[in-house]
Write a structure and sequence with these properties.
Layout lengths: L8 E2 L7 H14 L6 H12 L3 E3 L2 E2 L15 E12 L5 E9 L4 H14 L1 H9 L3 H8 L4
Parallel strand pairs: 1-4, 3-5
Antiparallel strand pairs: 2-3, 4-5
Length: 143
């Protein structure tokens, strides 16, 4: 299952609100044909109900269960924020990884991202990545 494509990596995004960051990765999922537009609304609602910040400078926005009907195919979007995005409570994400997973693929994709991002060394490589190829070298093998 190859859900990470070169066109899904956004580097050096200027800091913005968490809502704008979630909308950015969500709209990229829409633009690249992974989800229909209402899925982005579900991503924003998910963040209102509970944070998608997982620690280690990483947030993984995804949608509420009732919005999975808008997923057309599994995909992820990686947005790198060198100056970070404030997710509240002192939590600053330098990587915002929007995901959309169909069926069982959702937990598989989430698990693979979490496994890679548990290692601080991997997160640092992603935060310092200068090219899309740098990101693909860290994430591309598993996603």
């Amino acid at each position: 299952m190859q859900v990470l494509q070169v066109s899904n990596v956004l580097l050096n995004v200027p800091s913005e609100s968490k809502e704008d960051a979630i909308a950015r990765v969500g709209n990229k999922l829409v633009e690249n044909g992974y989800v229909a537009a209402p899925y982005v609304e579900g991503m924003l609602l998910r963040e209102q109900s509970m944070t998608t910040y997982i620690g280690n400078q990483v947030a993984i926005p995804h949608s509420m269960p009732e919005y999975v009907q808008y997923i057309q195919q599994s995909g992820i979007v990686v947005a790198q924020y060198p100056d970070g995005v404030d997710f509240g409570g002192g939590n600053v994400a330098k990587l915002v990884i929007g995901i959309a997973g169909r069926g069982e693929e959702h937990m598989e994709v989430l698990s693979q991202i979490a496994t890679v991002c548990m290692e601080e060394e991997n997160v640092e490589k992603l935060v310092r990545a200068q090219t899309v190829e740098d990101v693909m070298a860290v994430l591309g093998g598993t996603l």
